[in-house]
Design brief:
It comes from Skermanella stibiiresistens SB22. It contains nine helices and five strands; from the N terminus they run αααβββαβαβαααα. It has 237 residues and is α/β, with parallel strands linked by helices. The chain folds into two domains: 90 residues, no CATH class; 126 residues, Ribonuclease H-like superfamily/Ribonuclease H (Nucleotidyltransferase, domain 5, 2-Layer Sandwich). A five-stranded mixed β-sheet has the order 3-2-1-4-5, with helices on both faces. The protein is globular, with a radius of gyration of 19 Å.
């Protein structure tokens, strides 16, 4: 392993490659902090799960922000959906928007499921994306229609349970992480975790369908190259 040259890793006992590997493992796969610790131990790297937690918080945000900034313009068909999360015994709603290819556009954790909450999501999407979609696809929750009339009146709105499977399926990785974490502890934790998790997983959302094995491997190599450039270090061998 080499001495880290990136200033972000200055002063850390472990090389940048190890830290980058820990952050990538934790956000890319449904692993607990202790599982990441064990996988690093299998490579001869002795580090505590608490150190891994600190790395994910400190470096994950910066990596995710750069990936979000680098991301290409997504599709003009947005799928929106919300799912219930029980946090500390209270019901919350995770609002999510994905494009037609399944890339996550944004998420927002809220305590309500009304038109005001839907408006907050739409305004956040417009601010982050910088443009309105051609089509918005949702289920039949009336809050979406009310919010769209005020925030995006010129956008075509399609409401149907079946055609919104793209957004509904996008909740599955969050459900897996929820089980791995033995439930989320706070709405702030969910928002913080997903704001890092989603850009990283967007980078490796390569879609094997309609791709040859060679094309897929090329796309994967390109994704790893972007990761190395953004993280400032290659993944540890």
């Amino acid at each position: 392993m080499t001495t880290p040259r990136d200033r972000r890793y200055a002063g850390y006992r472990f090389p940048a490659e190890v830290i980058a590997m820990a952050v990538w493992l934790y956000f890319r796969f449904p692993l607990s902090l202790r599982k990441v610790e064990e996988m690093l131990a299998a490579r001869g790297i002795t580090v505590s799960h608490e150190a891994v937690r600190q790395w994910t918080l400190k470096f994950g945000r910066g990596i995710a922000d750069q990936l979000r900034w680098r991301a290409p313009r997504r599709g003009d068909k947005w799928h929106l959906d919300e799912v219930v999360l029980t946090i500390a015994g209270k019901r919350h709603y995770l609002w999510r928007a994905v494009d037609r290819d399944g890339f996550v556009l944004d998420v927002l954790v809220q305590s309500r499921r009304d038109a005001k909450a839907a408006k907050r999501l739409l305004r956040k999407l417009l601010k982050k994306q910088g443009w309105a979609p051609r089509v918005m696809v949702t289920d039949k929750l009336k809050s979406y229609a009310a919010a769209k009339r005020d925030v995006m009146p010129g956008v075509e709105h399609r409401q149907h349970k079946v055609i919104n499977n793209r957004a509904e399926n996008s909740h599955q990785p969050t459900r897996r992480r929820e089980r791995r974490m033995k439930r989320f502890k706070s709405a702030r934790q969910v928002q913080r975790f997903l704001s890092i998790h989603d850009p990283i997983n967007n980078l490796f959302h390569l879609r094997r369908d309609h791709r040859t094995a060679s094309d897929y491997r090329t796309a994967r190599a390109q994704a790893f190259a972007v990761w190395v450039e953004v993280a400032g270090a290659p993944l540890a061998a």
